[in-house]
Amino acid sequence: MTYSLHPEARDDLRDAAKFYRERAGESLSQSFFAEFEQSVNTLLKHPNLGLSWRGRGRRRYLMPHFPYSIVYTAAEEEIHILAVAHHSRRPGYWSRRKR
Question: Under a CB-based contact definition with an 8 Å cutoff, are residues 50 and 57 in contact?
């Protein structure tokens, strides 16, 4: 199984890492990336682990140590990440994103 990032999810990820780097330094930014990768690896092994969320086959997985969720769809051989969404950001801002 593989994964892909929606272009705007890539922006979400980059913006979050930039925020942590600017506020707390490179170490926290790298920790955020590492947790994202670990979360994605968990989802690749268990694609139905995230909770069904907002219909249309979308699921949400909460990152353990950061206030972010990975919003994704799971197909037979691929997870498509639609958003890396901060829990305080406007809910559903990513809802128009499609696979």
Answer: no
Among residues 97, 48, 40, 37, which one has the least CA distance to residue 76?
A: 48
Residue 34 lies inside a defined structural domain of this protein: yes
Q: Is 68 domain-assigned?
A: yes
**Backbone φ and ψ of 36, nearest 5°:** -60, -50
> Tens digit of pLDDT for each residue in 25-58?
999 999 999 999 999 999 999 999 998 877 778 9
Model confidence at 99: pLDDT above 70: no
Q: Enter the pTM of the model.
A: 0.88
Q: Is residue 92 part of a domain?
A: no
We report the CATH number of the domain holding residue 13 as 3.30.2310.20
| Cβ contact 73:59 at 8 Å | yes
